[in-house]
C-alpha cells in the first residue's frame, strides 16, 4: 500500500468503517488474513512493537499504536518520539492530551481515546478534544449512540466508536449515530 496522507485517512475510514483492534499475537495472525485495512495495535512492548508494526505494514495495513498500552514505553513525549522514529506507524492512540499535541507536532496522526462514564466525563472529554484538537477521537464505549449523536455537532473531528462493539447491530447503530468508523476486537465484525 502506498503512503497515506492525513487527508486521505477520513476517506479511508468512510470506505473502511471497521477498524481491527488487536490485543495479542493470535489477533495479529488473524488480522493478517482479513481484508480489514486499518488496525489499532493494543499490545506489545518496546522489544517487539516495531516488528508487529512492520508485519502489518508489509501486508498493506494502516497501523495506529496505542502508546499507553505498550509495555516498557513511558507514555510521554519521548515515548511518542520513540514510536515515530523506530516504529513508524501512521499514528497513535492515547488518552493523554499532552501526547496528542506532541504527536501532531512531530507528524503522527493522533487519535484521542475518551472514556464516557458519566456526564462529567462527557463534558471534560468534549472540552479536552476542542482544546487539543486531535485528528480523530475514539469514544468508549462505542455503543453510546445517543451520546455520539450529541458529540457530532460539538466536535470538528471524526468520531470512532470503540469498546463493547460486538454485533453488526452495534456497528450499524454507531455509524447511524454519526461515528465515521468503529474499532473492535470482535474478529467476526472485521469482515463487515
TrEMBL record:
One of its GO terms (biological process) is regulation of DNA-templated transcription. InterPro entries: Aldolase_TIM, GlpP. Pfam families: G3P_antiterm. It comes from the Bacteria. PANTHER family: GLYCEROL UPTAKE OPERON ANTITERMINATOR REGULATORY PROTEIN (PTHR35787). This is Glycerol uptake operon antiterminator. It comes from Clostridium algidicarnis DSM 15099.
Amino acid at each position: 500500500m502506498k503512503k497515506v496522507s492525513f487527508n486521505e485517512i477520513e476517506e479511508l475510514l468512510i470506505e473502511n468503517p471497521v477498524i481491527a483492534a488487536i490485543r495479542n499475537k493470535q489477533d495479529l495472525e488473524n488480522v493478517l488474513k482479513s481484508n480489514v485495512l486499518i488496525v489499532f495495535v493494543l499490545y506489545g512492548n518496546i522489544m517487539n512493537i516495531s516488528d508487529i508494526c512492520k508485519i502489518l505494514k508489509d501486508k498493506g495495513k494502516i497501523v495506529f499504536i496505542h502508546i499507553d498500552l505498550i509495555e516498557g514505553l513511558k507514555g510521554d513525549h519521548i515515548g511518542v518520539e520513540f514510536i515515530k522514529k523506530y516504529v513508524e506507524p501512521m499514528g497513535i492512540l492515547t488518552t493523554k492530551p499532552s501526547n496528542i499535541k506532541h504527536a501532531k507536532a512531530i507528524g503522527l496522526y493522533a487519535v484521542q481515546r475518551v472514556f464516557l462514564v458519566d456526564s462529567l466525563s462527557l463534558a471534560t472529554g468534549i472540552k479536552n478534544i476542542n482544546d487539543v484538537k486531535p485528528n480523530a477521537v475514539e469514544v468508549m464505549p462505542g455503543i453510546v449512540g445517543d451520546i455520539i449523536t450529541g458529540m457530532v455537532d460539538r466536535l470538528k473531528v471524526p468520531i470512532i466508536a470503540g469498546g463493547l462493539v460486538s454485533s453488526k447491530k452495534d456497528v450499524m447503530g454507531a455509524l447511524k449515530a454519526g461515528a465515521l468508523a468503529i474499532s473492535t476486537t470482535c474478529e467476526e465484525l472485521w469482515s463487515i
